[in-house]
Structures are given as C-alpha cells and as structure tokens.
Amino acid sequence: MLPFGGLSMSIDAVFTQFFADIHDQRQSEKIHYAFFDVLFLTVCAVIGGAEGWEEIEDFGEIHLP
C-alpha cells in the first residue's frame, strides 16, 4: 500500500487514479486489450528501458502470461 492523498492505496488504485483523466480514443471494434492494461504495460516497459513500440511489445510478450 502506498500513501496517496492521505490514504493508503494499492499501486493499481494509484495508477488508475493518476491516469483517470486520459480517455480511450480507440475504435471499439479494434480493441483487443483493456486501456488500463495498455497504459500499465507501456509505463512498465519504458521504466524497464524499452524505446519504441516494438520494444514495448517485446517487453509485454516476455513479462505477461
């Protein structure tokens, strides 16, 4: 749990609250992954050193089931 705004929140709750104002502009017919999952994977991959979409995809393939 992390202290956030005087409350203890889980990392996913903090992440969700921090990115809550970003709206999913994707076409609904083309959505294969939840928007939160894409954002979270992207942030984790970049923190892990990924540079560009191909490396973000590689990161996801390596670290996700």
Describe the structure.
With 65 residues, this protein is mainly alpha-helical. It has one domain (12-63). It has three helices and two strands. It has helices spanning 11-18, 35-47, 53-63, and strands spanning 2-4, 7-9. A two-stranded antiparallel ribbon has the order 1-2. β1 (2-4) and β2 form a beta hairpin. α2 crosses α3. The radius of gyration is 14 Å and the shape is globular. The two termini are 24 Å apart. The model has no long low-confidence stretch (mean pLDDT 85).
Brief digest:
The chain has 65 residues and is mainly alpha-helical. Helices cover 49% and strands 9% of the residues. It has one domain (12-63).
What are the defining features of this structure?
65 residues; mainly alpha; two-stranded antiparallel ribbon; 3 helices; 2 strands
Low-confidence stretches: none
Strand content: 5-15%
Total of DSSP H or I helical runs spanning 4+ residues? 3
Shape: globular
Distance between the termini: 24 Å
Integer tally of domains: 1
Helical coverage, percent range:
40-55%
The computed structural class is: mainly alpha
Strand order of the largest sheet: 1-2
Secondary-structure element series: EEHHH
Oligomeric state of the chains? Answer: single chain
* Strand segment count: 2
Largest sheet: 2 strands, antiparallel
Radius of gyration over all CA atoms, rounded: 14 Å
Integer average pLDDT: 85
